[in-house]
Design brief:
- This is Type III polyketide synthase.
- Belongs to the thiolase-like superfamily. Chalcone/stilbene synthases family.
- GO terms for molecular function: acyltransferase activity, transferring groups other than amino-acyl groups.
- InterPro entries: Chalcone/stilbene_synt_C, Chalcone/stilbene_synt_N, Polyketide_synthase_type-III, Thiolase-like.
- Keywords: Acyltransferase, Transferase.
- The chain is about 40% helix and about 25% strand.
- By secondary structure, it is α+β, with helices and mostly antiparallel strands.
- The protein has two domains: about 1-200, 3-Layer(aba) Sandwich (Peroxisomal Thiolase, Chain A, domain 1), CATH 3.40.47.10; about 205-350, Thiolase/Chalcone synthase (Peroxisomal Thiolase, Chain A, domain 1), CATH 3.40.47.
- The strands form three sheets. It has a nine-stranded mixed sheet with strand order 5-4-6-7-1-8-13-12-11, sandwiched between helices. Strands 2-3 form a two-stranded antiparallel sheet.
- The mean pLDDT is about 90.
Length: about 350
């Protein structure tokens, strides 16, 4: 069995509220595109009230070279990763020498060696610790990391797995790119990170099952193109429609394969907050009340879309309520791909299955 023991989160220092973003958008876009009012309305209706950045907006706008941005990405990833590991180890749930596998996820920059190499040295993890960097799965990577940790713990039940999701989407914003996709990205994404510890010891959340669903012939719908000026975001406007038309059936098949879900229902829905329209679509297609997507909606409003770290923020939000019952987690990423997890929340030690 794989249990989630602890979730920690971290944010970079620069905070922007929605009014600041709109004022900045008006200043940058005026005279450069013919649809300024529509663009500002898109930003205003994104469902994001606050976001955090690793550098001020002016610094990012004034330094649009890939070399500068990737240097900031590397420095900031090490810093945020260090904050996550410090909080995890200071919580007392695990010691550095007890981590057997470290999984890192990120898609908003490039590092070789990956960020875990610096953190293993800094925190003196064991020299035989296993490493698994996941770099090209986008927003789905956080959920997929949880799934791979679940698989690993089935094979090595006495081990402990540490996941770090570190995303800095602000560094992918292209200063002179006025495509709708780039504006949508600016409206939705924020910088941030999350860490999760898993083991086979009884804990507050058990992973019951996982499933990946790949949508054929959709690689052009989401991702990045890389050029001299950096990452060029690809976000197809048909993504909410694809989720509505193609995702619900495999998701329901997964739900029907979970005996606990069939007999007891689903009490908690942990959807990746990819955007307001995505959450609206999932709510409507699954016939949910607004309160049932409140955790995802709150994360989107407070910090924006954090790519692979988002579902871990949603998980943390749910865990704060001391939940009980079944949970369905879902995230989407480039491919086009969906990752599903069946969860069981426990409010007390007596409620946790053992063995």
């Amino acid at each position: 069995m794989a249990y989630i023991q602890k979730v920690v989160t971290a944010l970079p220092p620069v905070r922007l509220d929605q009014e600041q973003v709109l004022a900045m958008g008006r200043r940058i876009l005026k005279g450069r595109i013919p649809f300024v009012d529509q663009a500002l309305k898109l930003i205003a209706n994104a469902g994001v009230e606050n976001r955090h950045l690793v550098r001020t907006p002016d610094e990012i706008l004034d330094n649009d070279t890939l070399s500068w941005r990737n240097e900031v990405y590397s420095e900031s990833s090490i810093q945020l990763g260090g904050e996550l590991m410090t909080r995890m180890f200071e919580s007392g749930v695990v010691a550095p020498e007890d981590v057997d596998l470290i999984i890192t996820t990120s898609c908003t920059g490039f590092m070789i060696p990956s960020v875990d190499a610096y953190l293993i040295s800094r925190f003196r993890l064991r020299p035989d610790v296993k490493r698994l960097p996941i770099t090209e799965l986008g927003c789905a990577a956080g959920a997929m990391a949880l799934s791979r940790a679940h698989d690993y713990l089935r094979a090595f039940p006495h081990h402990r797995v540490l996941i770090l999701a570190i995303e800095l989407p602000s560094l992918t914003y292209r200063t002179r790119d006025f495509r709708v996709a780039n504006l949508v990205s600016a409206a939705l994404f924020g910088d941030g990170a999350a860490g999760v510890l898993l083991s086979s010891e009884p804990g507050p959340c058990r992973i019951l099952d996982t499933r990946t669903h790949f949508f054929y012939d959709t690689p052009e719908m989401m991702g990045f193109d890389l050029s001299e000026s950096g990452f060029k975001i690809i976000l197809d406007k048909k993504i909410p429609g694809l989720v509505a038309e193609k995702f619900v059936e495999p998701a329901r098949a997964f739900v029907n394969d979970q005996p606990e879900f069939v007999t007891e229902g689903i009490q908690h829905h942990l959807f990746h907050p990819g955007g307001r329209r995505i959450l609206d679509t999932l709510r409507d297609e699954f016939g949910l009340k607004e309160s049932q997507v409140a955790a995802s909606r709150k994360v989107l409003a407070e910090v924006g879309n954090l790519s692979s770290a988002s579902v871990m923020w949603v998980l943390d939000e749910v865990l704060k309520t001391r939940p009980h019952g079944n949970g369905l987690m879902a995230a989407f990423g480039p491919g086009f791909n969906a990752e599903l997890l069946a969860l069981r929340f426990h409010t007390s030690a007596n409620d946790v299955p053992r063995g």
